[in-house]
Specification:
Elements (H helix, E strand, L loop, with lengths): L1 H20 L6 H13 L3 H7 L2 H5 L21 E6 L17 H12 L8 E6 L12 E4 L3 E3 L7 H10 L9 E3 L3 E6 L6 H20 L6 E6 L11 E6 L5 E6 L7 H11 L7 E4 L3 H5 L12 H4 L29 H49 L2
Parallel strand pairs: 1-2, 6-7
Antiparallel strand pairs: 1-3, 3-4, 4-5, 6-8, 8-9, 9-10
Helix pairs in contact: 2-3
Length: 386
């Protein structure tokens, strides 16, 4: 009787939630919220998940959608490490530093402790365990190497980091397996940010349906991942697939909606095209892709452009002089026209001085000659008088 009573209560609650509160069918998101609520004792999540206002506040209709430029907002790194661990519903806000989740914490701490020894810049993210991806708790996925290691234990973390990430060797305690196909990671870290928590599960469901309908189950794999940065860009998606040159590249996309899922599958994964309007950047060689995103590319600032112009005085091709900037903004160069004026002024002063000197000499000479003439005339009169 108690079981029947409990079951009927749940049935009534589901019926009431779908008809009185949301006025729409009970969705998968609502079911997940109910399951999580019963496990954690937080029933407020149920009404929030089914609330129509979620899409406006946190979902694909929120006001911040498409307000920011996306290109260049991806994290700069060269290798991505994914630790397969539990479900995104159970991850705490800081899963890599949680005392209740020792495996992510130990792996994160080991990466930080050995960061100076790891030659390739490596990013760690937690991803959800899904049966259709054939992964279990503790499995490690490494991109762009397309490698999988199974069943990492807490006691193995230091040896794994030392073997694989520091020395670049296969893990001595694990079997290395090759990954194939494309991998789609969708941020659904609800306990970290509500926007990813609302958008992520919906996108994963859309990807799963589209993958099945297109017959791509063996070629494209999708799962949830923890926080990757940029909650305001939700839905956030990272796709690892081979480009036109055959190399595996991880492309970051933001503001992804369910309507974008077929485009990402058909054009990005199917044809190797970058979807520019949603593109945030990529793992590794960033500049190669930015050439394709002209309208969003951040212009490169050269060293010449970084030099400040001094008091609005620009370099002149006519004079051949350039300006330099001294300490505390004090100029250490002079204006060419001022120097020329100064030179002319100096030359004028010298010329005038020489002119005045010559004039004085002439007058002196005339005076001397006149005096000599006077003396000579006087002497002549003196002789005649004798």
């Amino acid at each position: 009787m108690l079981f029947k009573h409990s079951l009927s209560s749940i049935t009534f609650f589901l019926h009431f939630s779908s008809t009185k509160i949301s006025q729409k069918p009970f969705t998968l998101l609502s079911a997940r919220a109910l399951t999580h609520s019963m496990a954690t004792g937080t029933p407020e999540n149920i009404s929030t998940a089914a609330d129509d206002g979620d899409d406006v506040k946190f979902g694909f209709k929120r006001s911040e959608m498409y307000e920011s430029k996306l290109a260049g907002t991806a994290t700069s790194y060269d290798r991505h490490l994914f630790l397969c661990y539990k479900s995104h519903d159970t991850w705490p806000p800081r899963v890599e530093s949680s005392d209740t989740d020792l495996l992510p914490k130990l792996l994160s701490n080991a990466l930080k402790a050995r960061k100076d020894d790891i030659k390739i810049k490596t990013l760690l993210t937690v991803c959800e365990v899904r049966d259709d991806m054939e992964v279990s708790d503790g499995d490690i996925l490494i991109f762009p190497e397309m490698i999988k290691y199974r069943d990492l234990k807490e006691s193995d973390v230091d040896a794994f980091v030392d073997d694989v990430l520091v020395n670049g060797n296969p893990w001595s305690s694990g079997l290395q397996e090759s990954l194939s196909g494309s991998y789609v990671f969708v941020c659904a870290h609800n306990n970290r940010d509500r926007r990813c928590g609302v958008c992520g599960p919906i996108l994963i469901e859309e990807f799963s349906k589209a993958i099945e309908s297109k017959g791509l189950k063996d070629k494209v794999h999708v799962t949830a991942c923890s926080h990757i940065g940029g909650h305001k860009y939700a839905g956030n998606v990272i796709i690892f697939s081979s480009g036109k040159d055959g190399e595996i590249v991880g492309h970051w996309y933001g503001y992804v909606t369910p309507n974008d899922v077929p485009v990402l599958l058909d054009e990005h994964i199917g044809e190797g095209k970058v979807i520019e309007r949603l593109w945030r950047g990529q793992m590794g060689q960033y500049e190669k892709v930015t050439d394709k995103v002209d309208e969003q590319k951040v212009p490169e600032v050269t060293n010449e452009e970084k030099k400040p112009l001094e008091n609005g005085t620009q370099e002149s091709n006519v004079t051949g002089f350039s300006c330099c900037q001294g300490d505390a903004g004090v100029s250490c160069c002079r204006d060419a026209s001022a120097e020329q004026k100064e030179n002319k002024k100096g030359q004028g002063r010298v010329s005038n001085w020489f002119g005045k000197w010559e004039q004085r000499e002439v007058l002196t000479a005339v005076g001397v000659v006149g005096a000599v003439a006077v003396v000579a005339v006087a002497y002549g009169f003196y002789k005649k008088s004798r």
